[in-house]
Design goal:
Layout: H1 3-40, E1 42-46, E2 61-68, E3 77-82, E4 85-97, E5 104-109, E6 121-123, E7 125-133, H2 136-143, H3 146-164, H4 189-200
Antiparallel strand pairs: 1-2, 2-7, 3-4, 3-7, 4-5, 5-6
Length: 201
Amino acid sequence: MDPIARGARAVGRGVREVLLTAAAIGGVICIVLVIMAYAGGFSLIMFKTGSMTPTIPAGSVALVQKIPAADVVVGDVVTVDRVDALPITHRVTSVAPAEGSDARILTMRGDANDVEDPEPYTVADVRIVRGSVPGLANVIVWFGNPWVLGGVTLAASVLVVWAFWPRREPDPPRADGERNVGGEGEEDPVSSGALRRDRRS
């Protein structure tokens, strides 16, 4: 086979393996996140504002876990739900028991803010921040675009078809330097005819 063609085939196989590996890793990550969501109460939240800068800047994505408010201590960064408003994620500055229940009264403040939030929060459970990745929110929003999502789906389908499409490998060179005229397992009509003439003579 031509060295250039052989090199192109090798590059193609390498690219295919890299893309399939990346797709497999992405699938594993999705499966792990689903298991964590159902088994451990984990979820992801995106930060649109910079009230927690520099700890969690705007555009970050945080991994949060639902826990009882009784487990919260001062210094935790938690997300609490609010009536008629979006959830808020700030650092806890004080914790007090709520009379007659397992709920807690939390005062909170963003790391970038000079004052605490206007009102305390009475909650039975919260979502505590376990970690965050800066800038990931923009990537998630970009992938959420219908055109991008459709393109990714189409590209993944093409990749799977390309990876598993049957290919005919070239015949390996023979050790004696002769070429194969027929297909694999077939006789060369020229050489077989010559052999029969030799036997008759």
